[in-house]
Amino acid sequence: MGSTSAHKNEGLGRRDVIKRSAALGLISVPTMGFLSACASSDSSGDKKVEKGKATKANPLGVNETAPLEVVIFDGGFGQQYAIDAEKKYNAAFPKAPKVKHVATQKIQSQLQPRFNGGTPPDLIDNSGAEQMDMGVLVGKKQLLDLTPLMDAPSMDDPNKKVRDTLRPGVLEMGQFDGDPVWIMYYAYTVYGVWYSQTALEKLDAEYPEDWDAMLALCAKAKKQGIAGWTYAGKYPYYLPFSLYPFIAKIGGREVLDKIDNLEPNAWKDPAVKAAFEAYYELYQKGYILKGTPGLTHIQSQTEWTKGKALFIPNGSWVENEAAPTTPKDFKMMVAPPSGLDSSDKLPFGTIWASGGEPFIVPANAKNPEGGMEQLRIMLSEESSKNFTKQVKSLSAFNGGTDGLTLSTAMQSGVDSLKKAGDNVVNPRLQDWYVKLQKEQIGVAGIGEMMAGRATPAEAIKKIQAFADAAAKDQSIKHYKHQ
């Protein structure tokens, strides 16, 4: 989206390393008016185009003369990477009209009437503040099963299926119940605590590996007029990007699984209490940049790149998004959350990394084969490298960095994944229960605590009540870790 040595959780011991599991990475607050409208629409609209003949060159059977419409979220990653991939589609199907490319930050606003009318685009980058609720779309059968894409031969090696070219966990993230794949997460995001190596060097400091060291560094920075932390105060669901893996580090991956599963009293786990108290201590000791609760994600990133705060919880899109204000000598880096103490169940290095930038093909798309083919092109090594060079982020394609000179931020992300090994956690609240995660846990719970308007105990009580209500709400589809 305190726990110093005085708050050790003696009941928590160490455990075997965890295995990767599926997850999500994007941020949004959907409008309920859209969700109900989208969910209630069963219009088939205009008919689908006739499917083409499947060949080695055209394994998905794309209609070679049919139009294709792609809608891209014009956010931190921009849109040029998609335009470049669309050119390859145009070259592959010269008899078809040029791909209709639409870029917008208003995904929900622009697509609501089209979903209602049964005439959605063929491929959508469902991201941003107006992202559509993935759990609702899947639950109401609004999306096309992308299994044919996953089983199609990859662009680079016809003997290898697309599914076999993806980074660990990406395919599973698009699955909600059983085998169907509803979403293709194109970016591969590393979440964590972001900082400037230059700023730490000026303080003669290293990244802190436990909470006592974190507090000591924040105290040292404060004496120099620098805040320890800032965050997207208006969108405090950024805080879980470091808070959730911190909880997992303290209590184990099973704590996050229970939270995802909406199990009774999951939020009352000692690991949650310890993590909340630790973060609250940042507020109590004055280590949060003044005015942070009123800042947007862009404003908080700008204050951070200006050197007014050392740390910010974020995802790896921040490098591209904050580029206009980042000094050349900033040396942007990402690290896993600091641990609590020696009682932590998982080692330092435990991090949240998962697919991001979710692409979907609507069930009522006119040219669904074309939408899937566009994704197949994007999942080639060439398109993946182009994405990485342009937006400074890894893609879902497992590779695509050979021969590239990586920035300090990207290299630190790659290094963090290597260090984490199997200790990669992937909470699923963000795609299973968007309103719960963003508005309730993020804004009404964690946000209020970090602004000093609620104690950790009060925040946990409130969040548990929200989770219990969601578990009992029969109007929403519920999901569980398998």
From TrEMBL:
Pfam family, one: SBP_bac_1
Superkingdom classification of source: Bacteria
Alphabetized UniProt keyword annotations: Signal, Transport
InterPro entries named among the record's database cross-references: Bact_solute-bd_prot1, Chitin_NgcE, SBP, TAT_signal
Gene3D superfamilies: Periplasmic binding protein-like II
Keyword field contains GTP-binding: no
PROSITE patterns for this protein: TAT
Subcellular location, record wording: Cell envelope
Major localization class: other
Stated family: Belongs to the bacterial solute-binding protein 1 family.
Protein name: N-acetylglucosamine/diacetylchitobiose ABC transporter substrate-binding protein
Native organism taxonomy: Bacteria, Bacillati, Actinomycetota, Actinomycetes, Kitasatosporales
